[in-house]
Amino acid sequence: MSSRAEPSSPSLGNLLWLFRPERTEIDVASRPSDGLVVFSVMWGMATMLSAASRYAVLKFEQGVLAGGLTWVALFTSVLLIMNPRKTVMLMLLSGIMIAQYLLRMPVSSNNQTIALFMNLAIFMSLAVQAWSARGAGLDREVPYEQLRVVARAVLAIMYFYGIFHKINTGFLDPAVSCATSLYQPLTRPFGLDDNIVGQYAAIMATFVIEGIAIACLYWKRFFWVGLLLSLPFHYVIPISGFSWYMDFSSLVFALYMLSVPREVASGLYSTGVWLVRRVPHFRAGTSAVLALAVTGCIAGLFVLAEVALLHPGRSYYLIWHSFWLLVWTAFGGVAMLLITRAAVLEVPYQTPVHHARQSWWVYALPTFLFISAASPYLGLKTETSIAMFSNLHTEGGVTNHLLFNKPPYLFDYQANVARVIETNDRELSVSARNPGFALVEHDIAMRLSGDPRMWITYEMNGTVHERVTAETFPGHRPNWLERKLLDFKPVDWDRPKICTH
Predict the structure, then answer these.
(1) Are residues 298 and 405 in the same domain?
(2) Is the pLDDT at 98 greater than 90, yes or no?
(3) What percent of the chain lies above the pLDDT cut of 90?
(4) What is the DSSP annotation of 16-43?
(5) C-alpha distances in Å from residue 377, one per residue of 150, 168, 170, 414, 451
(6) How far is residue 389's CA from residue 49's CA, in Å, rounded to a whole number?
(7) Is 200 left (phi over 0), alpha (psi -120 to 50) or beta?
(8) Does the structure show a pLDDT above 90 at 19?
(9) Is 60 exceeded by the pLDDT of residue 43?
(10) What's the start-to-end Cα distance of the chain, in Å?
(11) Range of the domain at 141
């Protein structure tokens, strides 16, 4: 084991040491425990932001079980961040999130579905290793390498479909592109939100950044280049306030913690330990994290209280969202800085690539995710296909994707599209006023089965069906598996295709 000189506490005059990578941290020889520790911190934050995004559930509006499980996930995330060395805590949190996801199926959130695959990998890897050890002590090397394979593959799949789904006429049109929807809030303070050059640049930058990110994931020599582009990209997106992007961005940060070269994770761990112990000038690591977190929360609550007093008409959800946006701005900014610094500090990377043969399920999980993400073109679900904010349309046998004349359906779930004419459901009635709004037949069946008092008059394939209820519905009635696995976005026939989630 080589050693490095431990840095002295920085004075006010040389705080720029954070921005000038120097080989000053203690070399801890890239132990697998270090990689899992830094991942656990980021995974805890990603899970916390995911739980916090479910505002209505946390208020128990969707039942005591769902609300209670979400609060348990929230507190377990905090405990994991405070105790990132506790492997059993990581396994427990993954199990809670898996149970929560299964309870809620079908789930329309893409990032929560991606997190499901990672939680399955965490739980399976740690459970199998614990069973193999049987009291002899958990060998963290094995699950660390297994999770590294899964995380890198999940990132690659996410970036691949992040590009592929966006090759459509809607995303390439700055008037409706989701890239424009994210670009405008960020540039409005500078008066550049309507700048057509900036809008096209935002569209092209999406393809460029995600393309470079894929290449650098598996090109170890230039891994740091992908980080320098990807982390700021994902850090800034939530700050636009366009949607609750914070859990997705923190998810990506966490996946990068398993994908980085081993010495980068080790260096980041060393820096984190040094900051916690030396900068606050006391060595109680958990207490330091807790003290900093409490201080940050108090500061955030103070800012939000001021906002609530100055703008009393604002909803509680907006205040809740703003609070967590402040949390992400602080945590994500520090994490981005330290991860980038650790990546540059260790160039060129020397740790050899791990070539041990992995279990079949390590590759099966990413493979299933890849197939699942292709489902819009196969005629299956349109939700949870990593097609978020892509302007993609594949329903009704037509598509705006530039690589297909029509979707190559293997299934017909998207083939039959219904135009809602009249309904007693207030929310659906409002949406149906848009002449471009429609629903696939599966969605009609699901809505009716969820409320026996509900009726819909709709037109499908030239036939009008009057006041159809759950009992009189003439179409295909989804079985249990279809109800749990298939989820569809409302269909939008407007052209150009506007940006939706």
Answers:
(1) no
(2) yes
(3) 42
(4) GGGTS--S-SPP-TT-HHHHHHHHHHHH
(5) 24, 13, 16, 9, 30
(6) 20
(7) alpha
(8) no
(9) yes
(10) 49
(11) 24-351
Q: Are residues 285 and 166 in the same domain?
A: yes
Residue 28 shares a structural domain with residue 66 = yes
Sequence-separated (6 or more) residues with CB below 8 Å from residue 465: 456, 457, 458, 459, 474
The burial of 501, by beta-carbon neighbours within 10 Å (0-12 exposed, 13-18 middle, 19 or more buried), is given as middle
> 243-261: b or e for each residue (b if 16 or more CB lie within 10 Å)?
bbbbbbbbbbbbbbbbbbb
**Tens of pLDDT along 160-195?**
999 999 999 999 999 999 989 888 888 888 888 889
pLDDT of residue 170: 93
What one-letter code names the amino acid at 295? T
Last residue of a domain, one of 317, 351, 385: 351
pLDDT at site 284: 46
Whether 428 and 282 map to the same domain: the answer is no
Q: CA of 183: how far to CAs of 74, 191, 196, 357, 386, in Å?
A: 31, 12, 11, 44, 20
Give per-residue pLDDT as tens, 389-424: 899 999 999 999 999 989 999 999 999 999 999 999
pLDDT of 50 above 60:
yes
User: Residue 100 corresponds to which tokens in the numbers above?
Assistant: 């929560």
In a shared domain, residues 397 and 338: no
